[in-house]
């Protein structure tokens, strides 16, 4: 427990978007990474780093957005008891 408290200085708390939308995007990107880049055994850590770096450069050079299908209005209808009227 003491080691955990001594390590807390290494971490910086940052604000996140409401309702976890940034976490959803991060989960989507990690899922795509695992399907496109990490779908096989990679023997060396250096090879893994090179593969991920190459994948990230390709991803960052393309323009890809997130198409949200489930909006707050839909959620209020489908999950009425969890989303009270504004």
The overall number of domains is 1
Unreliable stretches (pLDDT < 50, length at least 5) are: none
User: What is the β-strand count?
Assistant: 0
What about the largest sheet?
none
Mean pLDDT: 79
Beta content: under 5%
Order of helices and strands: HHHH
Structural class: mainly alpha
Please tell me how large the radius of gyration is: 19 Å
Helix content: 40-55%
Backbone shape:
extended
Number of helices: 4
* Terminal residue distance: 43 Å
Short description:
By secondary structure, the protein is mainly α. The chain has four helices and no strands. The chain is extended, with a radius of gyration of 19 Å.
3D architecture notes:
This protein is mostly helical. The protein has one domain. Helices cover 53% and strands 0% of the residues. The protein has 4 helices and no strands. The chain has helices at residues 2-7, 21-36, 45-61, 72-78. The N and C termini lie far apart (43 Å). The model has no long low-confidence stretch (mean pLDDT 79).
